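Input (ATP-binding protein):
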Amino acid sequence: MDEVQQQTVGVSYAPCPPEEFCGRVEERERLGAMLAGAGERGQAVMISGPPGIGKSSLVNRLAYDVRELPGGLQSPVLRAEVFDLPGMIFSAFRGLVGDLARCAASGRFKETLDHEGIREAIRYADDVLEKYAAPVEPVGLLSKSGEEVIGIFARSPEVGYDRVRQAFLELLRELGRRASGTGRVAAVLLEDVHLASALDRRLLGDIAHDLPAGILLAFTCRTGDGAGRFEEIGAPDLVELPLQGMRGDEIRELARRRFGLAIDEAAADLLEAASSDPFSLMACFNALRRRDLAPTAETIADLLAGAPDPAALAFATLSGPYCAWAENLCVLHPPFPVPVMACMLDPEGTGPALVTERLQESGIFRRLPGGEYAFAHPLLQEHCRHALSADAKIALNARAAGCFERSMHRLSGRLHVLLSLACHFFHARDHAKAADLNLELGLRFYHREDYGTALVMTERAVASAEHLGDDALLSAARRQQDLVRRKAGR
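Output:
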């Protein structure tokens, strides 16, 4: 982004580009030591901290150090992200397998990846993960007379959790053998595991427990706000790397390198004491630039006092259509498919090209590797959701459900479509559609032993049936709810 664009829309709230990364010297040294030791023994680290503390930016820098840094390891990096839509079983792990397949096909790491053992392990892991998800992932979608959306499910061989664990561990063993045999270490990076299902957390724990040589596993986890601590992972050698706020010298470096601001010691000390997480600092520095304010301690104190939270300050300094766009899109669950986004922002259907071009310029949205979109930082989406009135929430969820229904023939993520519709129907208070779809999906997740997701879906069906006054449907939903609760131990 050039100087004029930065002045107009600000620096993006997406994870920091590795070339602009500031501070975290001690944390990077610890990660470097783990990388050095991973060749002989697999290493696992959980990067933890409250929202906005810079976990994803540190992962960005770690990926660069492993794969890109001149004179560095020049080793493969597998990376995936967990999103906040319940029911996407092992989608992040499937993303890791796909990332490795693309890395192998690129030909860049031939010495490590150009081997039939790697290709066979990728094919096997991908096949097992696909078969495991088959009972809940539709092979097609069908709208029946515009009244009901159903999934067409395949009858596939039953694949249990043990085969998933065995296939993924064998993939990592083969990757680790090839990497360590060529003097390298492959990095497996997984973000936002606090959003993961119980099954995903179980697999993550098993992997961390039996991590082979040649592999560094790093994952991020939000702490605070009721987020889990992941004691269930139980890996004896798992290292936790908790992130704290930035120090005064790091704050000054961030202001200078990313914003061109000269922050004096008094201003840096104020920010270190009051607002030292990178997200809050970004909001403050963007506000200073947008409003053309001097970065003095007094000005910064007034800025911080004038906003209830950093996300509010971030939106207060935006201009143009971006605030309205954020409000319209905040009810969606990432990753946002482009046709659905275009429909939400442009109901007349003039096309997504202009919308996607402007989104990338906004600083509050980011483009994902698969071409979909998400908010640049989860705190931005959470702020917008909390600010919605009850009526706006209903109207936007109804619009989202309609956009998914109209776009489904162009969408590849069929399970994401069904899960999104189940959520949007419920929050739009379309109780007839919500009850049927959530009850069906709840039963499928029950049989897949994802009892947490099954309970969420079934409880939506119960609530919708109560609103409908349909005694037969309510009875069926409550029977299913009791069944799921017994299995979930609740």
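The chain has three domains: 24-242, 248-308, 322-488.
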